[in-house]
Amino acid sequence: MAILVEISEALQNGRSRDIKGLVEQALGEGIAADVILKEGLLSGMDVIGEQFKNGEIFVPEVLMAARCLNNGTAVLKPYLAENGVKAKGKVCIGTVQGDLHDIGKNMVKMMMEGKGLEVIDLGKDVSPETFVQTAIEQECGIICLSSLLTTTMGVMAEVVKKANEMGIRDKVKIMIGGAPVSDKFCKEIGADVYAPDAASAADAAVEIFNEVK
Ligand code: B1M
Predict the structure, then answer these.
(1) In CATH, 90-212 is 3.40.640.10
(2) What is the model's pTM?
(3) Any ligand 1 atom below 6 A from CB of 14
């Protein structure tokens, strides 16, 4: 579909002002929101990631692309979210300490809110203490951790350790996600759930709250 290629290319070229119109056009052509997200916006972001890795582009270009992704997902949000669903449970979410990548985390938040969960967004560069303290104070059923760097995945293990130390491990589930982590890593560090993408994260969270009931 030509419009998806156009969206991907606009994102790669950092044309943040064009993205909204292009995404609306794709919706108008009857393309499903999740397809626009995956085959338009995220496929463009994959190219950006490769170019960034190879030193062909630099931080400003990546940030322009990130802005495009945010503008695009803002248009898609009402279509991706299931509106009018009653709150099913409370979670806190953040990108772990040392990590400033928050686009994926924001998508997980958006999908969880769409499923009717209450989401406390702790932002990025969040310490293990803050995750655990928030879970205690706000009575969250799940702590959701995002990491995009191999150098910060270890912080997830520290959150699990902290939750154990603070005696809340039987009351709270720990969900992890982000490009460098896996189900194997999840088991290794003693977290509860690994979700590969935002939609599966939201489904898994709803499942957890349904089991608790
Ligand atoms: Co950075 N960066 N970056 N970056 N960046 C990556 C991650 C990298 C893979 C690029 C590369 O080399 N190819 C690489 C990491 C390599 C590694 O660790 N092995 C990298 C690097 C090295 C760095 C810096 C160190 C670069 C430097 O300064 N030398 C630096 C680190 C800064 C820091 O964090 N301390 C850095 C900086 C940046 C920017 C600030 C420029 C910018 C971030 C802007 C922002 O987030 N506000 C940036 C970006 C944009 C990227 C890439 C290009 C795109 C990431 C992204 O947003 N993807 C990325 C390359 C890539 O991934 N292709 C790269 C789109 C997003 C929707 O996907 O976040 O994976 P993602 O989320 C997915 C899933 O992973 C999952 O759901 C989401 C959607 O389905 N998911 C979860 C995420 N969290 C989840 C939690 C869950 C469940 C699922 O449960 C709780």
Answers:
(1) no
(2) 0.86
(3) no
